[in-house]
Amino acid sequence: MKAMVLAAGRGTRMGALSDRMPKPLVPVAGVSLLRRILTHLGSAGVTSTVVNVHHLADQIEDHLADDIAKGAVAVSDERGLLLETGGGVKKALPLLGEAPFFVINSDALWVDGEAAALDRLAEAFDLGIMDVLLLLVPTEEALGYDGKGDFIPEDGGDGPVPIVFRGAADHAPVMFGGVQIVKPEMYEDTPEGAWSNVEVFRKAADAGRLYGLVHTGHWMHVGTPEAIEEAEAKLASLGES
Q1: Mean pLDDT of the residues in the chain
Q2: pLDDT tens digits for 149-185?
Q3: Please, what is the angle between helix 33-43 and helix 117-124, to 10°?
Q4: Which of 5, 24, 151, 207 is 20 to 30 Å apart from 35, CA to CA?
């Protein structure tokens, strides 16, 4: 499988820090968010990753210089126009091939449980019944997340289950953890320009082909300076670095 890391956003919630550093390069316990994701991908056997760039793009390209030189990373350049998550993936499709691929938000930081999250997703993805498979996190356990949750899953065991949007419900038991597997065909007949991957999720849900798999380890959203400190404290408590 190939992968795409969404690294083009401005990261405005980081405040003044985002004026001098793109959020994917923010260090948590001395390691950038982007490098942590690439390490997970490498452990899962992914040898070809696309990273999109816009805000302070030169810094990200410099950070990835060795990976680019080795052919492990390709850059999708959005300097001219920030395309958001859906438009960004659509632009990068020629680099991603014709098979399902990972898409990962650059501000997601996770620690695996007994089995690696990316391996679990890859093993669970079933072309026969799924168009999109999302990594889900129990809403109450998501460090750095203050929302009401995103999805309501069907009752099931430890495997993947169909999910629907929270809709008018006041609260949902799980939220999207920023990691997914998606079929490239889901970007056919989608708009040009900037738009959100949520539209792909809705398309899959309408067809009954949106599934989720609950993460069995720890998950942190690193979107603010305060969240950096929280994530570092959590990693230290787990004996992680």
Answers
A1: 95
A2: 999 998 866 789 999 999 999 999 999 999 999 999 9
A3: 50
A4: 151
Alpha-carbon distance of 181 to 37, in angstroms, equals 15
Could you identify the residue written with the tokens 């260090």? 27
Q: Tens of pLDDT along 104-154? A: 999 999 999 999 999 999 999 999 999 999 999 999 999 989 899 999 998
Report the distance separating Cα 73 and Cα 236, nearest Å: 30
Q: Are 119 and 18 in contact (CB under 8 A)?
A: no
CATH for the 3-237 domain, from 1.10.240.10, 3.90.226.10, 3.90.320.10, 3.90.550.10: 3.90.550.10
- 37/104 Cα distance (integer angstroms): 8
What the block records as the tokens of 73 is 């990373």
Please choose, from the candidates 21, 238, 236, 17, the residue with its C-alpha nearest in 3D space to the C-alpha of residue 112.
Answer: 238
Q: Is the pLDDT of residue 11 over 90?
A: no
Q: How far apart are CA 156 and CA 84, in angstroms?
A: 33
Whole-model pTM over 0.90: yes
User: What is the rounded distance in angstroms from the CA atom of residue 185 to the CA atom of residue 149?
Assistant: 27
Helices 84-96, 198-206: inter-axial angle, 10-degree rounding = 80
